[in-house]
Design a protein that fits this description.
The protein is mainly β and 615 residues long. Helices cover 3% and strands 41% of the residues.
């Protein structure tokens, strides 16, 4: 009879009647694949109640019982942001600062810890966490029974956030799973770049916090599950952490006020899985202007990797190119399952696919252009993603990192802040399509900067790749090592076909083995045992690489060159002995050496893995 009445209500389009329907029957919840905000799987961004098309779905859900559920709210009741997590101890929950609407009126409530009463001796009880029209978060206790039923909020004054089940005689809630990723630094394995540390100075909780001290673009930290373990976010509802800012985060286009925010994503090993989630002012209730400790709760569904095992969580400083820096602390990073997923905030980033000139974009919309993600800083239409005042790049992907733009220059400094010497440049012009520009020299001047030079003045953009040589050209080649127009045939590695086609390939690289003589302008070799490599006298632009085969731990030796030539040391501070010096690896799995001809007497170290000695 109830279904008949509901469907009659829909047929009559009596929205006033639908909007005043009582809450779902106690214990009812939507199917697991249905968005808890709209109840229709649309992924909407506000809890604005049910629409007529939702009624059948809600009626179907009447027979479903779960330990935690969120009932249907009145249309005038909605949650902007209200993070909740289980504290990990007893029956206490941590509730962050909340913003919400009741009866169309906006309210806020302060962060608070809430503790349920003692469990019943005989039956299960379901308690709820609610906020009300006095700006207070509190527990709405249920009645112990078999079966247990959700307590019913007064929807004229109260708004339900989540419900949880307490079994008879239990001292903790049922069905809640917690992965403690970071509390003190000994849980998951913490790795940091420059400007991040595991600090005991003024921790947010306990003895340590992850501290960012003037962290610049692309500084980051990772947390890896120990013992080669994995986690599946399909079994977890939320990623929660505490953060305390030390000042407003910049939102400018460049320089010392360049926009900065946190990009968060997951990896399986070194491979990024799913999509990045951005935390910036206004998202997930975060405000960098507040110096209070703030609780952030991110629905794991936003990462888009349910069912995909992951090992590592990464936090990265992202934003526009510039020198702006952030100082803040992060603590208590947890994954939790069995807790009702928090409603998606209205300000959460919205992925809009590939950038399109005809699309209207709103703040926090994200797009992809040229393989790089960007987030909208302001509403816009047909504004190029390279416009720093309107768009900011999200964290770079696993290959391409930071770029520097230049006009009519023969030298370009790239500030990449990757804390690594193992980088290699990629340069393009400003044309459409962009064309690859060959460089004259390249030098990693520090762990975070590199310099590229050209034989003739060029205009365009240069970036770096991480971990070795190689780049993919886009469009026709505009110049080769600074030469434009007709490029002469190069002995040993290039052939011509017809009047203009040029085919270049590495010199006579050989079958993997234990010795090799490099030739041509570029050549590679794979070592299967103790390995000796002979190189020609250096010349500008020569490139040679050698590495150990899979699971091979053997010493790689670049032999003495003679002619007063020498190899650069791994620290990039000096060169070995002229003429008689060698370059030798320590003999470990994964050893790799790539050298680059700087001039007629020097090979610089372009890329390396493992420990090297320049004798």
């Amino acid at each position: 009879m109830k279904r008949i009445l509901l469907f009659l209500a829909i047929a009559a389009s009596a929205w006033a009647q639908v909007s005043s329907l009582p809450p779902a029957a106690a214990g009812a919840s939507l199917p697991a694949t249905t968005n808890l905000i709209n109840g229709d799987g649309s992924g909407g961004a506000s809890n604005s109640g049910i629409a007529p098309s939702d009624v059948a779905t809600q009626d179907y859900a009447q027979g479903l019982v779960s330990a935690i559920s969120i009932p249907v709210q009145n249309p005038g009741n909605s949650i902007v942001n209200c993070p909740v997590r289980y504290s990990g101890s007893g029956l206490t929950y941590n509730v962050g600062a909340c913003t919400y609407y009741i009866g169309g009126i906006r309210y806020t409530s302060a962060a608070i810890d809430l503790t349920s009463g003692v469990a019943d001796a005989t039956n299960t009880r379901i308690d709820g966490i609610i906020v009300d029209n006095t700006g207070t978060a509190s527990i709405l206790a249920g009645v112990a029974a078999n079966p247990a039923l959700n307590p019913t909020p007064d929807q004229s004054t109260q708004l339900a956030i989540t419900f949880y089940s307490i079994a008879a005689n239990a001292t903790t809630p049922a069905n809640v799973t917690t992965d403690n990723i970071y509390d003190e630094g000994s849980e998951w394995t913490l790795a940091t770049t420059a400007h991040f540390s595991n600090s005991a100075t003024a921790p947010l909780v306990g003895s340590n916090s992850i501290s960012a001290a003037a962290a610049v673009l692309n500084n980051n930290f990772t947390l890896t599950k120990p013992a080669a373990g994995t986690v599946d976010l399909a079994t977890r509802n939320i990623l929660v952490f505490k953060i305390k800012a030390s000042g407003a985060w910049p939102t400018g286009a460049s320089g010392a006020t360049a926009a900065r925010f946190l990009s968060i994503w997951w990896l399986n090993g070194s491979t990024q899985e799913g999509q990045q989630v951005v935390v910036r002012d206004g998202t997930f209730g975060f405000s960098s202007s507040s110096t209070a400790i703030q609780l952030i709760a991110i629905p794991t569904s936003l990462f888009g990797i349910a069912g995909i095992p992951v090992t590592t969580l990464k936090y990265n400083i992202s934003g526009n190119s510039g020198s702006a820096a952030l100082t803040f602390k992060i603590d208590s990073i947890w994954l939790q399952g069995g807790l009702g997923a928090p409603p998606l905030p209205a300000t959460v980033m919205n992925f809009k696919g590939t950038w399109n000139a005809a699309t209207n974009y709103n703040p926090n919309d994200t797009v992809v252009s040229g393989g790089i993600g960007y987030i909208a800083l302001a509403a816009n239409t047909n504004v190029a993603v390279t416009t720093a005042a309107t768009w900011a790049p999200t964290a770079p992907n696993s290959a391409t990192e930071s770029f520097a733009s230049f006009t009519s220059q023969t030298s370009v400094v790239i500030t990449h802040n990757l804390n690594s010497l193992d980088v290699y440049p990629v340069c393009y012009d400003n044309g459409s399509p962009r064309q690859y520009i060959g460089f004259n020299t390249f030098q990693t001047t520090s762990l975070n900067t590199a310099t590229v030079t050209f034989s003739t003045a060029q205009s365009g953009r240069c970036g770096v790749l991480v971990g070795g040589l190689g780049a993919s050209a886009v469009g026709a080649v505009a110049s080769v090592f600074g030469q434009t127009g007709a490029v002469p045939n190069l002995s040993g590695d290039c052939t011509t076909s017809g009047s203009s086609a040029i085919t270049c390939r590495p010199g006579a690289s050989s079958t993997p083995g234990t010795s090799h003589t490099f030739s041509g302008s570029s050549d590679v070799f794979i070592c299967t045992g103790t390995c000796t490599l002979t190189v020609p006298v250096p010349a500008l632009g020569l490139q040679y690489c050698a590495w150990n085969d899979d699971n091979v731990s053997t010493v790689i030796t670049f032999a003495a060159i003679g002619s007063g030539a020498r190899y650069e040391n791994q620290a990039r501070t000096a060169y070995g002995t002229a003429g008689t010096g060698t370059l030798v690896s320590a003999g470990a799995i994964g050893d790799l050496i790539c050298i680059y001809g700087r001039d007629s007497t020097h090979y610089v170290l372009a890329s390396a893995h493992g420990t090297l000695t320049a004798n």
